[in-house]
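Form 7-S
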Amino acid sequence: MGVLIVTDGIDGCGKSTQVKLLVEDLKKSGIKTTTTKWKDSAYIQDLFIGDLIERIHGGEAVIPPEARTFLLGADLSYRIENIIKSKLADDYVVICDRYAYKIIAQGIARGLDKEWLKTVFNFIIEPDLNIIIDIPPELACERITKYREITFYEAGLDINPSKDRKKAFIEFQKNVRKSIIELVEMKPVIIMDGSKSIKTQHEGITEFVSDFLIKKGIINRKIKCIHEAIK
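Output:
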């Protein structure tokens, strides 16, 4: 069997960048690696659900938190059954760019019951390793707004209408951040300080993943970081 690694964190923490770098290092080290990300299953995107998720994300369609949870759960369920399980069976290292924990954490931040949410997602495969990119919401807000507007749902405006989207984002993401940490604190996890440079984070994550894969007997030497030019 392969290894399932999940990378998660609040919006704007830089997790997608770290997933990309880690996948490239693993592949160049000769390790069979694939990645899958949130809301990315082709099947779901081909149905109305894919379009609806995008409309919800942008605030064009406002639905109850329970319904949003089910939509994101449908996407994750499809990816587990049709991508993740088959790759794990073929001895791949599968790296997920976001997983159930963020959906659950956002649901809790929207007032849903934590135990109910955990029951909804009892179909998931427990990751072998979790990587949490942890940053203050204020920094995440600063990073996002450098290149785009904060979205309706990132700011939690569906449950807390506000004219100040940045302030709403910070308050909402504080609650999401707290729940994500609580959900993974008893699991195999590395919590990386996302305020550090991309290079420092990448080196730390690669070192940790290397040690983990060596202990699992998947590799017999450290993975080399190949991104010397990044800052």
